[in-house]
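ping. complex inputs:
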Amino acid sequence: MMIGAEGASSSKKARISENPVSKNRPYFALVVDDDPMIRRIHSMILKSVGFKVEVAENGKEAVDLFRTGAKFHIVFIDMEMPVMDGIEATKAMRAMKVESKIVGVTSRNSETEREVFMQAGLDLCYTKPLTMAKIVPLLEELQKN
Amino acid sequence: MDVVSQLQKQFIDFSSSLYREGYVDDQFSQLHKLQDESSPDFVVEVASLFFDDAEKLINSMARALEQPCVDFKQVDSHVHQLKGSSSSIGALRVKNVCIAFRSFCDAQNREGCMRCLQQVSHEYTMLKSKLQTLFRMEQQILAAGGSVPLE
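pong. complex structure:
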């Protein structure tokens, strides 16, 4: 079973089963954005389709969550953040062998900037804001896999 | 027509006008659809966060444009953030001014930027007033024992 950050600090860590993802189990998402409004909106959208959601205010907080043993099915990460931006955080997570799907979410339209973000290790990159139309196919993909 | 029905009609008319006049777009409607019993004040909360954000950013833009030597990259950064926030809440007019504003930042055109600053400040003030009216109307309906019509 995939666990969120709360489980990571518990003395009894859940084990990852052979089939960690199933329709009856919750899916865990991490929203990483320095904007509290975006964190609120994206969390709400994800919760509405059944995700359990954790939030982080910057890339360092996100990386630290993984360092403490938290696991997420999917990470939605902003590109521009203070302390540690999305590009550096994504590189750090991949260097730690984080296997979660990592989805970049950015307001930047520049193809060059998005490509740099993708090269950091994203699975895909969306323009803000996240919408149901963007989230539902991701959830369906998680359920298939 | 009883009081609740009257209030509901006024709400629907006012809400429709916000979309018709381009103050808000479908993203605003999507936020309303996310609101439920477990988060009954979600839209008001998001709007409050947007108001805080927008006011800080507009003030930052004004300060940056007042400098003897304007740092257009800094101004652009603030405009970019406001564009992102306004997109996320569905504040269409504010977003559209930000798009024009960014062009003037790219061109390092101080006068154009000042005009856009005035415009974005105006659009933001109008939007805030309209949304506060909308939220007041919702409260009036609920206080009268009715339910807020879905958009």
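The first helix of chain A runs from residue 5 to 9.
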